[in-house]
């Protein structure tokens, strides 16, 4: 009888001790996480303006970044053109006036309420998606 108590007592003491040990060991375990910065250094303020304008307008009902819906994927548009003042103006005009022919026979709707400046910002953002 006495012996079982001693064994029980020892077992309890051991368990308690173990518990403490494992606690302290988790405390001291430092997880070293290397934080890789996800922010792209190529993103400029202007890109964000263009992106916001695209989100505010109806563009995303016909366009996706990486997939053709009604209109071409923005990444495909970016890959087709090389950004220059001329190209940006031409594409900005096209967004304002609408039209078809470069990607197929389905026309893009006109956006006559857009200013040329806003349209340019959107085009700059789209062309920045080049892969
Ligand atoms: C009604 C659907 C629709 C909407 C809304 C729309 N687009 Fe388009 N978009 C198209 C189609 C269709 C084309 C392909 C036109 C073509 O073949 O020339 C296109 C083409 C484009 C092109 C490439 C033009 C070229 O000549 O290569 C750009 C840039 C573009 N869209 C930007 C925008 C922006 C910015 C908006 C929002 C202001 C917008 N689109 C809204 C359907 C749409």
Describe this structure in words.
The structure is a single chain. Helix content is 57%, strand content 0%. The chain has six helices and no strands. About 19% of the residues have low confidence. Heme C binds next to α3, α5 and α6. It holds the Pfam family Cytochrom_C. It comes from Mucilaginibacter mallensis. InterPro entries: Cyt_c-like_dom, Cyt_c-like_dom_sf, Cyt_c_ID. This is Cytochrome c.
Q: What descriptive keywords fit this protein?
A:
mainly alpha; Cytochrome Bc1 Complex, Chain D, domain 2; 6 helices; iron ion binding; Cytochrome c; Cyt_c-like_dom_sf; signal; heme binding
**Spans where pLDDT lies below 50 across 5 or more residues:** 19-43
Oligomeric state of the chains in view? single chain
Highest-level CATH class of the domain at 45-127 = Mainly Alpha
Helix run count: 6
How helical, in percent, are the residues? 55-70%
Give the SSE string: HHHHHH
Under the CATH scheme, the architecture of the domain at 45-127 is Orthogonal Bundle
Structure summary, number of beta strands:
0
Instruction: Tell me the name of the CATH homologous superfamily of the domain at 45-127.
Output: Cytochrome c-like domain
How would the global form be characterised?
A: globular
Q: Might you state the CATH topology name of the domain at 45-127?
A: Cytochrome Bc1 Complex, Chain D, domain 2
End-to-end C-alpha gap: 79 Å
> How much of the polypeptide forms β-strand, as a percent range?
under 5%
